[in-house]
């Protein structure tokens, strides 16, 4: 069996896990959490990085930090995971879904601008497959209308846009370290704070609404409840598991890129024949090989190809059901404009196995199986 994903694991983390356990310090914000913060700041250049329990909680923290209230509207793609929307719904906001650019599966800036109303408070671009959105166009729209921007960069750590790191192209960036991501702590995430005026309050919200961080820095003589907040600190065990991966992020990314390039080169003949479309990355950015997807002719062909691969012990999966078509999406949001691409493209997209331990031989087996499907069809 060639699985769709195997969570990343580096043997070097075992000694760190044991150290955390033996130090009897496994709650949050210990040595390993702080070292992860430092690594994330070095990788991204963000002024401040804070680990959270998930990317979901990172976006929740962002929604609290930006004081999203009932009646506010937040614009985002419908082609995304529910965690992009839920944190804003929990604050009472209405989600305004808009169409995507079919070449990148990312927000279409023209659709974003058309959806803005006096109630709009924020834009949430999602860097799908580690390919960054057109952030210059979105930043211009946000500036012209006085809107916040929060990047859902769950899939995009180490990707770049015009030389800048994903997650640092807006007010707040949110990362995921779920087991399906390039770098994992099982369940976990991080918030990147790109404005200095947001840092102190973000620390307070993350620490249950207390000024505990200021207390430990010696800035106050006792800490107390000063604002709303929640408990967003992951365990030191999670941080210890993640740390080695962050320290070796270039090595992990290089392994993934080798397999991504192998897929692209191996499947290009089918693309040239017009049988499939391949994942693309605009010239103004670099991606992190988070995934490799192809697009089939339609939903029926994708279903048959998925089953064909499964019969050959290869697990390939499709991705999101567009949120605006979901029961909760219809209850808590609306789609603005025409759904020209979102549903159609989501029904054609198929993700092939991708993880940093995927071997050259296994990748070749997947390519061969896809070729054989189209040879017989």
Layout of helices and strands:
Elements: H1 13-22, H2 31-44, E1 48-52, H3 55-65, E2 73-77, H4 82-90, E3 94-98, E4 100-101, E5 106-107, H5 109-114, E6 120-123, H6 135-145, E7 148-152, E8 160-161, E9 164-165, E10 172-176, E11 189-193, H7 196-206, H8 212-216, H9 236-247, H10 249-272, E12 277-278, E13 285-286, E14 292-295, H11 299-311, H12 327-332, E15 333-335, H13 342-346, E16 349-352, H14 360-376
Parallel strand pairs: 2-3, 2-6, 3-15, 6-7, 7-10
Antiparallel strand pairs: 1-11, 4-5, 8-9, 8-13, 10-11, 12-14, 14-16
- The CATH architecture assignment of the largest domain turns out to be 3-Layer(aba) Sandwich
CATH homologous superfamily of the largest domain? Type I PLP-dependent aspartate aminotransferase-like (Major domain)
Spatial shape:
globular
Major sheet, described briefly?
8 strands, mixed
Name the beta content range. Answer: 15-25%
Which runs of at least 5 residues are low in confidence (pLDDT < 50)?
Answer: none
Global mean pLDDT: 97
Number of structurally distinct domains: 2
Number of H/I helices: 14
Order of helices and strands: HHEHEHEEEHEHEEEEEHHHHEEEHHEHEH
Number of strands: 16
Q: SS-based structural class?
A: alpha/beta
Helix content: 40-55%
Major sheet: order of its strands? 1-11-10-7-6-2-3-15
Q: Report the top-level CATH class of the largest domain.
A: Alpha Beta
For the record, give the distance between the C-alpha atoms at the N and C termini, rounded to a whole number: 24 Å
CATH overall fold name of the largest domain:
Aspartate Aminotransferase, domain 2
Radius of gyration: 21 Å
């Amino acid at each position: 069996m060639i699985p769709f994903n195997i969570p990343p694991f580096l043997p070097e983390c075992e000694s760190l896990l044991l150290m955390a356990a033996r130090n009897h310090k496994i709650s949050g914000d210990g040595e390993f959490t702080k070292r992860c913060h430092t690594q994330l700041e070095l990788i991204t250049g963000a002024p401040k990085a804070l680990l959270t329990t998930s990317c979901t909680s990172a976006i929740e923290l962002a929604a609290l930090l930006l004081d999203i209230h009932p009646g506010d509207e937040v614009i985002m793609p419908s082609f995304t995971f529910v965690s992009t929307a839920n944190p804003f719904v929990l604050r009472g906001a209405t989600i305004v879904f808009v169409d995507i650019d079919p070449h990148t599966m990312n927000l279409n800036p023209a659709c974003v601008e058309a959806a803005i109303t006096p109630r709009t408070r924020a834009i949430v671009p999602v860097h799908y497959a580690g390919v960054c959105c057109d952030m210059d166009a979105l930043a211009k729209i946000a500036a012209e209308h006085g809107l916040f921007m929060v990047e859902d960069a769950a899939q995009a750590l180490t990707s770049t846009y015009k030389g800048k790191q994903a997650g640092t192209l807006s007010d707040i960036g949110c990362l995921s370290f779920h087991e399906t991501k390039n770098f994992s702590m099982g369940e976990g995430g991080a918030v990147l704070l790109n404005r200095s005026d947001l840092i102190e309050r973000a620390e307070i919200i993350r620490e249950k609404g207390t000024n505990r961080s200021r207390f430990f820095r010696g800035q106050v003589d006792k800490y107390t409840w000063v604002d709303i907040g929640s408990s967003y600190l992951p365990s030191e065990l999670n941080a210890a598991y993640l740390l080695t991966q962050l320290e070796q992020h270039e090595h992990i990314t290089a392994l993934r890129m080798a397999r991504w390039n192998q897929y692209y080169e191996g499947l290009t003949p089918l693309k040239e024949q017009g049988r499939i479309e391949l994942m693309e990355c605009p010239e103004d950015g670099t991606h992190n090989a988070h995934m490799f997807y192809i697009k089939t002719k339609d939903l029926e062909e994708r279903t048959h190809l998925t089953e064909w691969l499964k019969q050959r012990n290869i697990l390939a999966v499709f991705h999101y059901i567009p949120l605006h078509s979901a029961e909760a999406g219809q209850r808590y949001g609306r789609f603005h404009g025409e759904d020209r691409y979102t549903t159609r493209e989501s029904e054609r997209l198929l993700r092939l196995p991708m993880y940093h331990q995927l071997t050259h031989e296994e990748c070749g087996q997947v390519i061969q199986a896809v070729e054989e499907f189209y040879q017989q069809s």
